[in-house]
Amino acid sequence: MPSWLSCCGLTSHYNFGPRTEGDGVDSTKSTNDIFPFELMLCCNLVRLNFISATHLFIILYWLALIPAALWLRTIPYIIGSALLWVGWTMLTVILIRFDKIDSLHRMQKGEDSLLVERSDLQKIQASLEKFYENVDGVTALWTCRTRPRLEIMKQVMRKVIETRWASKAACKAYFKTMIDGLQEIELNIGGIDLYLSKDKALSKDALALVRAQLDRVANLIRLNDAKDVMKKAKDVMVVPNLIGVRVVACHGLPTGTVFSNYNPFVRMRVKKEGDWVKTGCRDSQSSPRWHSGQDPVEFRFMVEGFGKELTCQVMDEHVGYDDTFMGELRTEIDSLKKGKWTKISKELEDPVSSENPGKLHVEVFLVRDAADLFELMPAAGQDRFAEEGLAKDRFAEQGLAQTAVLKNYDDDHRV
Hints:
The chain is α+β, with helices and mostly antiparallel strands. The protein is built from eight helices and 13 strands. The chain is about 40% helix and about 20% strand.
């Protein structure tokens, strides 16, 4: 027997119970629906569980076909009676399997409901992503551009109030220096589109660089007297100010001495007293190569003001001994074209061998405004080092080369 019919308790799998939302019932549907309901006949010997209105209609129709078929046979109308008995038989099969058919129907309704909920969740997720994206953009604008500039203005006015000025002319000169510097900052750090735009927004590393240099300006004003601030402002209030250096290759280096071959590497710095950063060593090579598209060897240095010089030295590595100087290349940073990679290939100065001085080939990118910074550090790679933090030396070893992607941002190694 089907699970909706029990006769004398012979149907062990007879089932009667209210449907739940998990059975495909619409949670918004009125709770006044009487289905399913149970009908007990003959002192509860026969029990019927009407699952739905459709189920009840099919049972009533099934019962109505019996007298209709018998009546047509008495007319007599044998064909009509036969057709009704065929329909009755088909309804009997449907009723026997109705619980399974109804289960499939409820599963289908449940699947449709889940699809609707999934679509609603996707819409909510998209709106949340858009919201958080806008929040991230506004937060980046505030923390990296607006708040540091307000801090600079605060320190400027604080210095005016706390300084005992010798004359009005001295105070006026201080104001003029600060106004010129602030105008330079406003011109160079770019508009809001570089911080909020989807297509042109600065990367996280670029935003951190702008913030670090603006904070440095505020600290300069806070920690120095007005006279020292005026001396240093021209150099410090250039934001952003950065160079990127790619060490490409050396050519025609001497092979070595009678005792050992040269193992060249390149080290460089911008600040005269700053720490050296270096590439990996190339053992016993007279024309070593470093930077390539698949194996980048790129260094980035923050620069203070103007008149600075990039020093690149080719060295011979000796394990357990001091490295040997093989020659150097010096480049005036102010002579570079900003916003583009400049190729430099020159013979080494003060070479270890005058017969084979060798050449060093590097590429340098000068950044003097936010648009240049976007070109050097596009947003497409902004998550590459997102977990590293700003004030860390970031290296990625690939083969024998050591790549410094963002070097010396902390005050202890300021270049």
